[in-house]
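From the pipeline queue, job 12 of 40. The input is one protein chain; the requested action is below.

Action: predict structure.
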Amino acid sequence: MAIWKNKKIKILIINPSANLGGGNTISNSLAMESDKNLFEFFSFFPEKGMALTNLRRKKNIKILIPSNSNFFSILKFLYSFLKKNKLDILHTQGTRAALWTRLAVIPLLNKPKIIYTLHGLHIIRKGFFFRWFLILIERFLNHWTDILICVSLADKNLVLQYKLIAPEKIRVIKNGISIANFNKISKKKAQDLKIKLNLENKTILTAIGRLHPPKDFETILNALKLIVPKAANVKLLIVGDGPLRKKLEDKTKQLNLEKYVKFLGWRKDIPLITNISDVMILSSNWEGLSVVCLEAGASHRAIVASNIEGIREAIIDCKTGLLFKKGSFEDLAQKLLKIIFDKKMRKKIGEEAFRFIRANFHQEKMIEEYKKLYFSLYENSSNK
């Protein structure tokens, strides 16, 4: 430890946006909860976003935001900052952030170490020609990536399959969350929120995520249409925002579900939201390793989620949650009705989920793994 006793390791976390999505939640934990005696964190956001930037400012983390959020302005901003300020490590979150970061460091003579955390390999979902164009770009730019972090074994297998980077540069560090944040919610706070949202005596179903195609919220709405004739006291909370919000609101009206659905937008009180929920829903078409699954388990809540690889590592089917056939609103509706009416099963799954998440996806475990990686890269850099 002697080599960094008198010097903090300077780390810039590059975020793809300033919203409260899963990847940003993880980077938020790293920036805010890591030892400030060992690390000095900087945070880059491509645009203003009050929720995350305010959280990090409270911890005296320096926030970097370019005056313009277009692609070339971001590159120019990052390059200028890195040229003027000697940083030890750049930690990019997701593909977009990694693209900006690696392009910005290419002209630098003294390059910081780059850690690239991949929150799901989304580029392989594109059309054939565009997919391979992006894969070739990734292969090229990964020459400047020192370590590529996969948040799931499924992602690691995809990275190896598409030969995106040398195998020895790949690490798996699974997402982790603060269990305590989801366990210390008072019953009074939960009841007050139910009253405020007019949810008393309702069976509350909650879906959290960015409102964009990969999350497939339409499947949830279609399933809800099948559920309400049999469970009329249900209420679906959709927590998040994104480009599909208007379309989803219109679909809600078309299905005559207005009185059963509340669009809450982005919320800062996710632990409180999960604690007032009876059942969580995740309908994603693909995931890296879903934070929503972890949040549900940390709240002792049952979840019904898509049966896909990135989710199967966070849910044991019929034990810590129920898995439904991806894209099948009929199967989702069937599983939801089963867990809505079987309260004993719901409680048992919630308790099993809590034990599983506490044992395998604790924030402290994740931070410790990143801490060791930061030290390792810094030591290697200092010895050159």
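Job complete. DSSP finds 16 helices and 13 strands in the chain.
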